[in-house]
Amino acid sequence: xxxxxxxxxxxxxxxxxxxxxxxxxxxxxxxxxxxxxxxxxxxxxxxxxxxxxxxxxxxxxxxxxxxxxxxxxxxxxxxxxxxxxxxxxxxxxxxxxxxxxxxxxxxxxxxxxxxxxxxxxxxxxxxxxxxxxxxxxxxxxxxxxxxxxxxxxxxxxxxxxxxxxxxxxxxxxxxxxxxxxxxxxxxxxxxxxxxxxxxxxxxxxxxxxxxxxxxxxxxxxxxxxxxxxxxxxxxxxxxxxxxxxxxxxxxxxxxxxxxxxxxxxxxxxxxxxxxxxxxxxxxxxxxxxxxxxxxxxxxxxxxxxxxxxxxxxxxxxxxxxxxxxxxxxxxxxxxxxxxxxxxxxxxxxxxxxxxxxxxxxxxxxxxxxxxxxxxxxxxxxxxxxxxxxxxxxxxx
Amino acid sequence: xxxxxxxxxxxxxxxxxxxxxxxxxxxxxxxxxxxxxxxxxxxxxxxxxxxxxxxxxxxxxxxxxxxxxxxxxxxxxxxxxxxxxxxxxxxxxxxxxxxxxxxxxxxxxxxxxxxxxxxxxxxxxxxxxx
Lengths: 396, 130
Ligand SMILES: Cc1cc2nc3c(=O)[nH]c(=O)nc-3n(C[C@H](O)[C@H](O)[C@H](O)COP(=O)(O)OP(=O)(O)OC[C@H]3O[C@@H](n4cnc5c(N)ncnc54)[C@H](O)[C@@H]3O)c2cc1C
Fold this sequence. Notes:
The structure holds 2 protein chains of 2 kinds.
Chain A: E1 3-8, H1 12-24, H2 26-30, E2 34-40, E3 44-46, H3 50-54, E4 65-67, E5 77-80, E6 83-87, E7 92-95, E8 100-102, E9 105-108, E10 112-114, H4 122-125, E11 126-127, H5 132-144, E12 148-154, H6 169-184, E13 190-195, E14 199-200, E15 203-204, H7 211-223, E16 227-229, E17 234-238, E18 243-246, E19 251-253, E20 256-260, E21 263-265, H8 267-270, E22 299-301, H9 314-334, E23 345-350, E24 356-361, H10 374-392
Parallel strand pairs in A: 1-2, 1-9, 2-5, 9-22, 11-20, 12-13, 12-20, 13-16
Antiparallel strand pairs in A: 3-4, 6-7, 7-8, 10-21, 14-15, 17-18, 18-19, 23-24
Chain B: H1 2-16, H2 23-37, H3 41-57, H4 60-93, H5 100-106, H6 110-128
The complex binds flavin-adenine dinucleotide.
């Protein structure tokens, strides 16, 4: 029997990788020596960064999803089925429908989920834009607030050196919020306060998780009359009094609490028992270079489930997918993986409703901020509206 | 903040230097000299003017339409490319060309019937536009 490759998760990581594997392994697939199966618990693929725009009434639900099947090469077997258990020693996965899928290579691409319930009162009183429904609710609030105080907080995973999802999103949405309220003509009556926790990966008392970007933020915020505060690590929220409390002993009132919530891996990964991450967060122990899961034979991980110090971003998946595709191909053809991930992530950050800032970094280099520009904003819009789907298909 | 405070000092000192004191600028001027002499630098200025006009003309709505066109075009060429690649691989794997009966039995497969329906509906829609 040929080699069976199973990818779990039809998000951006799993989809790109499946398509790239078909391309790499085409001769073997043609000869029936390799079979690629993608299992996902949703028939649809969501362009998650669009949730951020949903919060500002800029994207319709229908525009941010496509049927997953339409993004996959026809050689890929696609099943809508949720994986409920990984049996690594038996080399198979168990699914909700009761089926068992054996594998020779397994790629875990199940992403992560927001977990506001992990902070007392946050689920009841906080708003976020990391899922569609939550973003719609936030949009409703932002579209109707006339005066008051919008308090922005960011929570990091408790596992050291692991970032929150999409590092730059809190800054992007703060600047979009400022523009949005100006357009509505209520900005002078709404106070915006951006806060960042005391510990942000390796940094202390900063406004961002990388120093060069953190250093330009005060200037950017001051120009727009956005208040900012370092050292606010959200510890609990009082939904009745509408007050956010910090571990540092501070308390801040709010009318809207726009919070980047804690995140965790999905249930089946948490329950797999492979993760040693703190606070039962579930990040898989990932080889920085090969992207194999330490201690497991033939198992790789991509995207938001890794425990790497790089941003949990589509721009990270974009650089991880070719490495995994090469490594699985090399394992099949040569017996050992050879490609190396250098930690590269690239993106175009949305800096306000119209401006954009292209950026990149890797394990060895921080982002070097450039001035936000209209051209950058148009590039980002073009990516959101069309280029993304070609990227997911593995064409770009 | 520190970085912001430093930057004007640096740019001021650059402005104060004469070009012949700045090796980088001098090297650049040397390279540009033939373009200046030939009057071809005007083309560069034209291009810059054109680019800046285009950037001014582009707006989010236009970019959205262009991106939509891009997606439509890539999705169609991707599907067709996939279909041809796969059909070619399967056909060339067959030792002898399929018999008439073999061709007909392809129609028994649901995927084939779906493909035929798509082709017929495509023709139907083209007909509507004639
Ligand atoms: C608001 C927001 C803004 C963002 N902005 C940017 C940005 O500007 N740039 C950028 O690069 N990134 C951005 N990101 C991050 C980016 O969306 C994620 O990093 C990326 O989607 C991660 O890809 P993934 O494949 O690891 O996981 P996901 O895309 O989350 O996909 C996981 C998939 O696994 C499936 N799944 C889960 N559990 C199971 C199971 N048990 N069985 C089967 N299937 C399962 C899910 O249905 C889903 O299809 C943003 C994210 C958000 C939420």
